[in-house]
Amino acid sequence: MYKKVSLLFLFILLKGGVIWAQVTPVTEQPVLNDRYVQIIKADIFRRVKRDSAGDLNILKGNVIMQQQNTLIYCDSAVQNVLLNQVETFGNIHINDNDSVHAYSQYMQYMGDTKVATLKKRVKLTDGKGVLTTEALEYNVGTNIGTYLNNGKVVNGESVLTSKEGIYYANTRDVFFQKKVKLVDPEYTMTTDTLRYNLNTEIANFLAPTIIKDERSTIKTRRGMYDLKKGNAIFTNRPEIRDSTQLVYADSIAYDKITGAGRATGNVEYRDSAQGIAMYAGATDFNNETKTVTSYSKPLLVLKQKEDSLFVTADTLHSAYLISDSSKVKNPADTIRYFTAFHHVKLFSDSLQSKCDSLFYSGIDSVFRFFAEPVIWTQGSQISGDTIFLATKNRKAEKILVNENAFTINRTAEGMFNQMKGNELTGQFIEGSIDFLRVKGNGENLYYLQDEDSAYEGVNYTMADAIVMRFANKELKRVTWFNSVTGTTYPIMQLPEDKKELRNFKWLESIRPKSVTEIWTDWNKIKKPLEDSVKITDEEKKPIKPISSSSKTSEIIPRKSSGDKVKKNIPGKSPIKKEN
Description:
The protein is mainly beta.
């Protein structure tokens, strides 16, 4: 129909001398019915009389037409009065109620449906955002514009492009679909389906989306992002990654300006520069300061090629420790520290522990155990008021126990060699105990063996200092120093009250036996998205119009962690060199 009208228009121009019905310019035409497109002005007006096909109005020069609150400007036009249709040419401008303006070089307008089909250098604007494309269908009645062959929306400094799109002038929402790309001075966003509001500058993701800036990459399948405020909510297993860090969870609330965020549901946090990973039900993090606080069954993993270290607690916190902030330009150049609060358990193949709070700093590589701490290594148990364990390459190297130090070594036959005192120090070689020494009110219960390793007696001794030396992970020798007093009992005559030193507690029942024991979800860890983001059949469905009453998503405020982390900046290592 449109092609026929266009050909007819050309024919009329060529043969105009024969069929022109009127030659006087039109300056105003009375409005007879709001249903019809009315002619307001034209330099040249001609009427072509036809029978059943309907009369044609031929308009040339500064043409102005109107339907209700919509004005149409163009260089020339052909109007079919019977069908209430208009075909316009050259410098077309639609003024829709002084709120939306559309421009093109060619347009077909259906007066009954109020649908305009614009082609060639199409532009649609509401005074703020500008949509440009080569072909656009705009419904004047509903104020909805649709393009199906590439379009671009410019809103301030943000530029959005896509193959298809729907623009809702009433709500200023735009639905973009197929090869969607948003370019902003600070980041680039690519997706397949996106809803964007020109007023609020809030983008809603409806398909796999990737957001990149100079420092980080965000992947998500669903969510929203407030471009003005920098706040975002990502769902359906999103991830945030930079050069050293990865946050991966069921959902993430994130402030891109400050770098602060909260991840919930199957959270995985990694710092590849420090070789750590943290898993939890919920985690607060900051990509700028590199801080992370995990709760709801958290697990910290200090990764190694062999014998990785696993820590669980009610709350786990980690951050970079800046010893001299004036000399540090990048927080990533500093060293991490870790704190764990309440019901702390530690497991590795060579070392296990239980306490109520723990602190570790990469500056001196010392673990500090507080509140009834206990350490197990091979067949030995060490306890006291406070335990400091120095490590090298994350293997035990030295130990210091302050106050009420007690060590128990269980033999293969189930005997308990025991030693206690005010203070205990020790040395490890390749993670295995070399010696343990107590000082101050030392007591020792030692099962004697003959050359054939048969038990022949028990020695109970008190001394100022006592040293237990080990070989091949077994106790081989005990040495006493200063004010030594003691008694040796035949193995069969050892009194019941001498079998255990005062405050003896063998705590094997609470010793962590495996990583799955201290963290039952270890085998259920979900892997990151990596580059496996694929569009589902549901996400491939064509975009559908939305009602004008729909609202954009709101920002969900992040809650602060219930546990306040105290600053604990260590000075010198509390463990002295053993002579």
